[in-house]
Amino acid sequence: MKAVETKIPGVLIIEPDVFGDHRGYFMETYSTNKYKEIGIDNVFVQDNMSFSAQKGTLRGLHFQNHPMAQAKLVSCTKGTVIDVAVDIRKDSPTYKQWVAVELSAENKKQFFIPRGFAHGFLTLTDDVEFRYKVDNLYSKEHDRGIRFDDPTIGVDWGQLLNGIEPILSDKDKYGPLLDECDCNFTYEGDK
């Protein structure tokens, strides 16, 4: 397994070891000891899966406020997505910066998103299955979102959409901008 650092400390792209032969392949999707060796010592308590039927489905940008904040370990097990993490920790040197990575059933990459980040993804194919492990339970009371097209963040969905009109929920289409949101994350240094 290989962990690839991104431009934002703590946000990692994980390339698992895949062992294939004429029958197919085998890979570990999670191992406490191996992930701890690369700096991920979160205790994951819930696994989630979403299905998106159509190419161009955009989900995000989502997060949970403290004390129910969540770190996420995400992957795409069918189809292809562009996955995005946005630093929403006030006073962070990378505040409002974002990182994107292509995740697919073919490349088998994973993306680790620490607490203090908003998360979203865009489907590049039809019939996408997206999975994620989280280190805190879902809390409707703490669930938040910010607009996918917040101009102060500047995620280049236009380029990522490549001319496709995004398919959005009302929550994602009409959510607040980050500066209007009650996000309660503050930068506490890189761990």
Helix fraction, binned, reads under 10%
How many separate structural domains? 1
Number of E-state strands: 13
Query: Kindly, what is the distance between the CA atoms of the first and last residues, rounded to a whole number of angstroms?
Result: 21 Å
Main beta sheet: strand number and arrangement?
6 strands, antiparallel
**CATH fold field value:** Jelly Rolls
Number of helices: 3
Provide key terms for this protein.
191 residues, Jelly Rolls, single chain, mainly beta, 38% strand, 8% helix, 6-stranded antiparallel β-sheet
Secondary-structure topology with pairs:
Layout: E1 2-5, E2 12-15, E3 18-21, E4 24-27, H1 32-37, E5 46-52, E6 58-64, E7 72-78, E8 80-87, E9 98-104, E10 110-113, E11 117-123, E12 128-134, E13 143-145, H2 157-161, H3 170-173
Antiparallel strand pairs: 1-2, 2-10, 3-4, 5-12, 6-11, 6-13, 7-10, 7-12, 8-9, 8-11
